[in-house]
Amino acid sequence: VQLQASGGGLVQAGGSLRLSCTASGRASSIYATGWFRQAPGKEREFVAAITWSGDYTYAADSVNGRFTISKDNGKNAVNLQMTSLKPEDTAVYYCAAVTTYGTSWQHAYTWEYWGQGTQVTVSS
Q1: Contacting residues for 47 by C-beta, under 8 A, at least 6 apart
Q2: Residues of the chain with pLDDT under 50
Q3: Is 73 exposed, middle or buried (0-12, 13-18, 19+ CB in 10 A)?
Q4: d(Cα 75, Cα 103) in Å, to the nearest integer?
Q5: 110 phi-psi bin (left φ>0, alpha ψ -120 to 50, beta other)
């Protein structure tokens, strides 16, 4: 499975951005896809995840109500719509995928495949 993240950029506080993660290779083997982020000097942090079928989502408390994760079935892609962005959302955002059922989505070790990061910078 190969993952390609896109959509990062610079935005003012209160603004919106949409990230996309496109899967290729054995995309049909994916059970779930998620997003993590990592700010300078900090550990990688779970953001949100969705089953590949799109029927279950889970988001971190820090982004719940502001970020929405969704599945684009026509494109083998997962989108992360980010609204009401804050400076503390600034980080490199990574998408990840797992091919087996599991419940520990908030832990990075759960995820088998990772895409390259995309930078999100929120200015105050």
Answers
A1: 34, 35, 36, 37, 59, 60, 63, 67, 80, 93
A2: none
A3: exposed
A4: 25
A5: alpha
Q: What is the pLDDT of residues 46-79, one digit of tens each?
A: 999 999 999 999 999 999 999 999 999 788 999 9
Residue found by looking up tokens 């419940």 in the block = 103
Q: Which residues contact 12 (CB under 8 A, 6 or more apart)?
A: 122, 123
Determine the Cα–Cα distance for residues 52 and 49; give it in Å rounded to an integer.
Answer: 9
C-alpha Rg value of the chain to the nearest Å: 13
CA-angle at 65, arms to 12 and 19, nearest 5°: 55
Single-letter code of the amino acid located at 97: A
